[in-house]
Design brief:
Layout: H1 3-6, E1 25-29, E2 34-40, E3 43-44, H2 53-61, E4 64-67, H3 77-86, H4 101-113, H5 126-140, E5 145-146, H6 148-159, E6 162-165, H7 169-177, H8 184-194, H9 198-211, H10 214-228, H11 230-253, E7 258-263, H12 273-279, E8 283-286
Parallel strand pairs: 2-7, 4-6, 4-7
Antiparallel strand pairs: 1-2, 1-8, 3-5
Length: 291
């Protein structure tokens, strides 16, 4: 998994029912209550709409949606100001000083090829530069439409459904700003290298998301991240999943049915939410319209 694929942003230990579910929504229950966990893509192509019909079905079924963070604030000036401040280097520091000569040379080559003035990057942390490169490349590949969360969140706001979140805006900004901290050169180098396979990886992951092909998501998303970015894997997925689990358990204890929407890669693998909830004794099964 690269920073590029993260912006989009399972092992043999998975229960057999997770191996190929033909959906990206799972039903999680105790003896009394049920919540629905939906795996999402944060950016989509216009052709990805309409969403898989299971998403619309569950959306209509519940009156309470839970997102990773407060989606109503993501377009606010307050969020933008805070995000840009956090992603900027301290006064007196520049990007060129944060990286090895090889990594910085790679950025210069990428910028020249894409008509980018690297002067605009100098005040930003390497994590922010990776994010900007990633977004540019994803836009080139057609990811210009709002993601699942924004689409369903906007509908829920208009229709007066209850909306809550698993983490604060400040917590989410912190995780993005500190990704790969201490390994910035490797983060830049691997991101630039992964651009070569991004089109194929994106097609694979998009298809896997729509069909619930958990093994393909693991092979293309989780496994490379564990190998290339173990620190990012631990901070961006494992740590956040562990923080979310008690909050999800509290949601399950409440009688109202809820639709919990998180990035698809948070659900899968031995550290994923599905496996951990199953290990805690909850009934976890793919949702099917045929049931």
């Amino acid at each position: 998994m690269t920073f590029v694929r993260l912006s989009l942003i399972i092992t043999a230990l998975l229960l057999s029912c997770f191996s190929y579910a033909q959906t990206s929504i799972w039903q999680v229950s105790n003896d009394k209550n049920t919540v629905y966990l939906g795996g999402t893509f944060h950016m989509l192509k216009p052709s990805d709409y309409p969403l898989p019909q299971e998403f619309e079905h569950i959306y209509k079924k519940v009156n309470w949606l839970v997102f990773e963070t407060d989606i109503s604030k993501l377009d606010s000036t307050e969020f933008e100001t805070k995000f840009m401040k956090t992603m900027s280097l301290p006064s007196g520091q520049i990007l060129a000083d944060q990286l090895s000569p090889q990594a910085y040379s790679g950025l210069i080559h990428y910028a020249a090829k894409n008509g980018i003035d690297t002067g605009h990057w100098q005040r930003f942390k390497p994590q922010m530069v990776c994010l900007m490169i990633s977004l540019q490349e994803l836009n080139k590949l057609g990811l210009t439409a709002q993601g699942v969360e924004q689409y369903l969140g906007d509908k829920a706001l208009l229709e007066g459904k209850k909306i809550t979140e698993l983490e604060t805006i400040d917590e989410q900004i912190h995780y993005v700003a500190t990704m790969g901290q201490g390994n910035e050169t490797a983060l830049i180098m691997q991101t630039l290298e992964d651009l070569k396979t991004l089109p194929n990886d994106l097609d694979t992951m998009s298809t896997a998301w729509r069909t619930g092909d958990v093994q393909s998501l693991f092979n293309t998303g989780i496994q490379p991240m564990m190998e290339n970015y173990p620190e990012v894997y631990r901070s961006l997925l494992v740590e956040r999943n562990n923080n979310w689990l008690p909050r999800i358990e509290q949601l399950i204890k409440q009688p109202d049915e809820k639709f919990i929407l998180v990035g698809a890669l948070h659900l899968i693998g031995e550290d994923g939410l599905l496996q951990q909830l199953a290990q805690r004794g909850y009934q976890v099964q793919p949702f099917s319209l045929q049931h």
